[in-house]
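Data deposition worksheet. Section B asks for the primary sequence of the deposited chain exactly as it was used as input, without tags or linkers unless they were present during the calculation. Section C holds the resulting structure in token form. Section D is free text for depositor observations; keep each observation to a single sentence. Incomplete worksheets are returned to the depositor.
Section A, Depositor: J.P.
Section B:
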Amino acid sequence: MLRLELTQLSVKDAIRAEHSDIVRGAREAVNMLRGAVSAAVLAERAPIEAQRMGFTRVLFSRIRHGTWFACSAFAGADEELAESMVSVGLANPRRMSCPLLESEMVRHGVPILVRDAQSTRMCIPSWLR
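Section C:
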């Protein structure tokens, strides 16, 4: 029983340490973004800093006159994918409207989590609906 209890404590400590690392990474990322001296620097740094927070793929965009434009992306070591994400986004600017997931994010003023981009299922926390 004592060995089991010690194992459980070790697992809990490992989980707590992992969460602390994630929070520390997020804090550092936000601090780096706060230090951006221009919108161009922010657009360049945002995907990289989002990766530091634990995201594996990030597309940073802007909205101008109701139209969505891709600015920069991060896709881990796959720089070609990141470049493709931006190229496709720039080649196909979209009007902000209901079928576009980003429209919901802008409309609600909150981030969204897209769990399966192919089926476009998204999660908006229930307290924001």
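Section D:
Residues 2-34 form the longest helix (33 residues).
The first strand starts at residue 58 and ends at 64.
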